[in-house]
Give the backbone structure.
Amino acid sequence: MKLSNRITSISPGGSDGWGVFYRARAMLAAGTPVTELTIGEHDVRTAPDILDAMHRAATGGHTGYAIVPGTPALRRAAAERVTRMTGVPTGPENILITAGGQAALFAAHLATCGDGQKGLFIDPYYATYPGTIRAAGGVAVPVQARAEDGFQPRPDAIAAQAEGASSLLINSPNNPTGVVYSRDTLDGIASVCRDHDLWLISDEVYDCQVWEGEHISPRALPGMADRTILVGSMSKSHAMTGSRIGWICAPVEVIDHLINLSTNTNYGVAGFVQDAATYALGLGPEAEARVAAPFARRRDMTLALIAGQNTVRAVPPQGAMYTMLDIRATGLSGEDFANRLLDEERIAVMPGESFGTAAAGHIRVAMTIPDAAYEDALRRVLAFAARLAW
């Protein structure tokens, strides 16, 4: 008996650079202290009042099947937030509630990327992007955004891969680089999508974490509302990572078909989680700003420390909760540097190679531990790099 080609081709095998993360977790489990600067998990967890709302909803009986597209209240709340963040009028009919942003990414690609069609995505990329495209039956094709361009994607590079493609996935503010795509970049991307009849899947889960510049949703650009599928999530904005609650915003026809998909896959999202998300969105942008504030502080710490040395370079993080450090002056790959850093300093970071080839010779640092510990760890990372370069 054989498994399907689709399920066995999600991951092509070989090293994906995540070995450092798994080694760090094994060391921690064995009792070895390790400072983790690896994944995008807030050091402050979901706010108690949001958990109280979830508890009230569960004990109040909202534990049965919830309506598949999402509760009317949450669809309205998500639509209101999308309207506020993108400037494009949005109604609940444009929203499908999903089990987190990852489920939304999969659904978006299943809607737009037919069997054997190319699904484009920008390299460096969030780790699940190529596997998600392959899981939907597409052919995952990276388009490199170069460090020398500040990791801003070049429209001509996208256009060069557009033949035979049906979709393009972008992410701004960007994980892993912390870059916020400029208006010129997004105008160029939109032009390529219109010229080559591409669906644009825009992962905007970090839209409330912008430290420099502005967040521009491509959905707001001319001719793009009808060809953009926006992915949103409560994970980063409200520190609700484990609650698995997000949404797709898309044209009504797309949402109607995706409701059929949801009916035949997860059959909706837990009602008490949806009620908690509705409550959380009702707290307004001030609550999101409180969740984001630690990363803004640590971003400033990062820039100050990098300015005080001359071994490690960085594209200044403009958003999200990460910084990408260029450690090529050490003569090591990102993976070799990260492994030695873990062995010698007991600090875990992600190799740039974990996120594609464009970030080779870099490491990604997650700014996700308390300020004093973060500052100490980053000082040690920079000193370690200086010793290697010496």
In short: Residues 64-284 form a domain with the Aspartate Aminotransferase; domain 2 fold (CATH 3.40.640.10). Residues 141 and 357 are 12 Å apart (CA to CA).
